[in-house]
Design goal:
- The structure is a single chain.
- The chain has one domain (about 1-110).
- It contains three helices and four strands; from the N terminus they run H-H-H-E-E-E-E.
- It has helices at about 1-15, 20-45, 50-60; strands spanning about 65-70, 75-80, 90-95, 100-105.
- The protein has a four-stranded antiparallel sheet with strand order 1-2-3-4, with helices on one face.
- The radius of gyration is 17 Å and the shape is globular.
Length: about 110
């Protein structure tokens, strides 16, 4: 009985904190800003302008992510080079109010 109660609490908490599209958009905006900051830091320390973080920022801001809701977690996928080409899917997992990158497309150095 305790196991069932604990399981219900865990599942209920995951459902409650399953991040939605609005949360993901905030995550993307924050990640893009981090890329801009990292790129500026690279440039000021003698690095090359337009490195990987610049590409990351531009791809993040223009990518259209599709959300699949599984109630206790969500996945977000953007196909950056179209359905007819392989290797362009960018995948994230949203669970417990957090996001984790699952797969990075080759166009972004994945």
């Amino acid at each position: 009985m305790k196991f069932l109660f604990l399981t219900l609490i865990v599942v209920g908490t995951l459902v409650l904190f399953n991040p939605d599209k609005k949360n993901f958009n905030s995550f993307v905006a924050e990640r893009a800003q981090t890329g801009i900051t990292d790129n500026a830091r690279e440039t000021s320390s003698g690095g090359l302008l337009g490195g990987g973080s610049g590409t990351l920022t531009s791809e993040l801001t223009r990518a259209s992510f599709e959300r699949s809701n599984y109630f206790i977690l969500s996945t977000y996928v953007a196909d950056l080079n179209g359905a007819e080409h392989d290797g362009g899917e960018w995948k994230f997992l949203g669970v417990g109010g957090q996001f984790f990158e699952l797969e990075r497309p080759r166009v972004l150095g994945g």
